[in-house]
Design goal:
Blueprint (H helix, E strand, L loop, with lengths): L8 E6 L2 H9 L8 E4 L11 E4 L1 H4 L9 H13 L6 E3 L3 H17 L3 E6 L2 E5 L6 H19 L3 E6 L2 H8 L7 E3 L5 H5 L12 H9 L5 H5 L3 H8 L2 H8 L16 E12 L2 H21 L2 E13 L4 E6 L8 H12 L14 E13 H4 L5 H5 L4
Parallel strand pairs: 2-4, 7-8
Antiparallel strand pairs: 1-6, 1-7, 2-3, 5-6, 9-12, 10-11, 10-12
Helix pairs in contact: 4-5, 10-11, 12-13
Length: 381
């Protein structure tokens, strides 16, 4: 007997997406550990790992790991007789193209659709009425993506986005996990508390310090105690530990910022070089604003990471919105230059990374018809 459901949500998550696309493009990579990210430069490279396929993950290599550390892990595995990892710089334009085709497939099979990132999305399929029918659709989607793109994905099917996301990670890669409403608590309880979205290393350490290691433990903590530990966020965790979430599947969200950052090949305090790279980042960010239909923004932020990994961010909101690349560059320079002397860098430490970000964005239609893409990109004299 099938179960009538009032709400059915899928979370579709591509498996090691960037690495999988690289393997598809280059058959010589198949069956080998693949790491996508910065150039490791024999252990002296800068930057981080973007993703690693499942063979490389067995070596302890994961997303956001420093690329030099990933290289050392790969070398250690190679010396133990394991296959050598292959490091790939990656083709982000290709990844976006492949992602677009996949998202079109997902959107066409859903009542409501929300792209969560380049390689994951939520689908509301409540009109199917039963989890049995939803599971059948999930299998069809997996087969269609495999046939069209030669890629695998993992799917979680559940009563809400929270549980669907956790379920999609449960049987990776190429998994399908269906959690019906009456099985939600049984599914969540034995899991580590950190599976709840939003619990990062700091929150996990805080909870562990109070004896909370599993979702069952978290569920046993009274609401007033959780809020005392974590403030208003504690109330959200109280609901999440019970698998409760009313978050809708919707693409009606507004992007809050656009930014870029660059890790230098070597730590430096050479003003000419740093200013040149900052100008290139500013130009790239501003073109990203225009490409995404934003006409102006209110706040500029500059991030600097020193050689000792101390990271500082400074922001400024001028009286008038920023509408041109020239105006943005003036703001970036005002924030950046103090890091090149004693004002923000009293020990004159070399700089490892800089970042530029535009925040509090306004779209073309919201800013008025008088601003066009051509106007925004045209230098102001």
């Amino acid at each position: 007997m099938t179960e009538l459901a009032t709400r059915i949500v899928m979370h579709v998550d591509m498996d090691a997406f960037y690495a999988a696309v690289e393997e598809r493009q280059n058959p010589e990579l198949r069956g080998k550990p693949v790491v996508v990210g910065a150039d490791p430069k024999d252990g002296h490279g800068r930057g981080v790992v973007t993703t690693a396929n499942y063979l490389a993950r067995r070596y302890g290599i994961g997303s956001a790991m420093p690329i030099s550390r990933a290289w050392r892990a790969a070398e250690g595995a190679r010396r133990r007789g394991e296959p050598a990892a292959i490091f790939v710089l990656g083709d982000h334009a290709l990844y976006r193209t492949v992602s677009g085709r996949i998202m079109n497939v997902l959107e066409s099979r859903s009542d409501l659709f929300q792209q969560a990132s380049i390689d994951e999305a939520y689908l509301d399929v409540s009109s199917l009425n039963t989890f049995e029918t939803a599971a059948h659709l999930a299998r069809e989607i997996k087969e269609e993506i495999a046939a069209r793109e030669g890629l695998t994905c993992s799917v979680g099917v559940a009563p809400n986005k929270l549980v669907a996301k956790i379920a999609s990670d449960f049987q990776k890669p190429d998994g399908l996990t269906v959690i019906r409403p009456d099985a939600v608590q049984e599914f969540l309880d034995p899991m580590p508390a950190r599976v709840i979205p939003g619990i990062g290393p700091k929150a996990d350490a805080l909870l562990r310090g109070r004896g909370v290691t599993t979702v069952r433990d978290l569920r046993a903590v009274p609401l007033d105690e959780l809020t005392a530990w974590l403030g208003r966020w504690g109330a959200g965790l109280y609901a999440s530990a019970r698998g409760i979430s009313d978050d809708p599947v919707s693409n009606d969200w507004e992007r809050k910022s656009i930014g870029e950052q660059e890790t230098f090949e070597r730590d430096t305090l050479e003003a000419g070089f740093i200013v040149d790279r900052a100008k290139a980042l500013t130009s790239h960010v501003f073109r990203g604003l225009i490409a995404n239909q934003f006409a102006e923004f209110r706040t500029v932020s500059v991030t600097v990471r020193f050689s000792n990994f101390t990271t500082l961010t400074r922001s400024h909101t001028p009286k008038q919105p920023i509408k041109s690349a020239d105006d943005m560059w003036i703001e970036v320079m005002a924030l950046l230059l103090p890091f090149l002397d004693h004002r923000e860098n009293p020990k004159l430490r070399p700089i490892r990374l800089i970042g530029v970000r535009a925040e509090r964005l306004a779209r073309l239609e919201a800013a008025g018809d008088e601003t066009t893409k051509e106007d925004a990109l045209r230098p102001h004299r």
